[in-house]
Write a structure and sequence with these properties.
Elements lengths: L2 H16 L3 H4 L10 E9 L2 E2 L3 E2 L2 E8 L5 E3 L13 H14 L3 H13 L3 H5 L14 H17 L13 E10 L5 E9 L9 E3 L5 H13 L9 E4 L3 H10 L4 E4 L1 H19 L5 H23 L4 H13 L4 H14 L19
Parallel strand pairs: 6-9, 9-10
Antiparallel strand pairs: 1-4, 2-3, 4-5, 6-7, 7-8
Helix pairs in contact: 3-4, 4-6, 7-8, 9-10, 9-12, 10-11, 11-12
Length: about 350
Amino acid sequence: MNIVERGRAHLQSLIALAKRTVWDWKQCPNCGSRWTSCWGSYQRYPWFLGQGRRAVRIQRHMCYQCGHAYSEQSALLVRRSWYAREVHRCAIDHWQHLGTSQRRTAEVLRSWLGLQERWQLWRPLEAEPAERCYLSASTVQRWLDGAGQTAQASVDGQLSGIGHAQVVGTDGLWAKLKGRGQRVVLLVVESISGLVYPPIVAQGEESAGPWQRLFGQAQRAGLDLMAVRGVTSDGAQGLLAYLRRGLTWVQQQRCVWHLWRNLGRELAHAANQAALGLNGEAAEQARQQARTELGELIHRIIDAQSYEQAEAALATLLGHPLGATIGQLLNQQLDRVLVHLLDYYRGLQRVTPEWP
């Protein structure tokens, strides 16, 4: 299996483990017999993120067919560890993503887990914790070594069967230069791997020319344009013009962050309409109520899990006394907002790449 298939298989194994019922655990993992009975239990006291240290009861079973005793497993726990699986993953991600040392990683995690040390700086009015966490840098190093050894053992074949990027994201960063000049830096990023292709600098992004240069440079750097299926972007008209002319088979996914920002003005206008004829606290309450109602309806459309849910929420928004204009704007973008729901565009992100 390649690296993507291994990751998917690992996730599915955790999901299957979490879904196991009492009846499933009655089957002996050694011989498959169900001639078993409960055989006592024991307590574990792991640390969890946001929950501190808590007791977890582990049930044991005895198989009368083969004489094998076994314990129930949990997708949340790591065998022979004082820390839950989420703490292991958080430590590795913190060290790798933020680029900090193992000592600082352990220090920050201790603060979160035990509500101690730096937590007392963040929240000085908090009482001292009842129990302290003693996660050390050496423990984090041991977790990293274990993850590294597992990754090293799976190097062979990890890229087999992986084709070219099929979904990408693109964005632009405006910068002010001396002499009051402005330029925009455009880049393309693979949505799944995070690979960043060489960016370009242009005077603007309103025409198709700069975007053609950008994707042409990405193609020279290894991006197979014929394999690309979808691209996540804001509403730049130059990109849309290029896609219609040069990459007609590529579907655009609208960035939901940019979409929310564009709807902000209309949302504020609708809130002011709700407060017409009112003064003081009554006007503010009317504005707040309008923002809450319209915001919830917009969320139900943009974050819908299916086209049917989005269309039902859109109909409700269009029927709202203050939601007609916002509903019409979302109706124009609905197909582009929900592209990520289609299996053909699996992996397409809902937001454009973040700039460091």
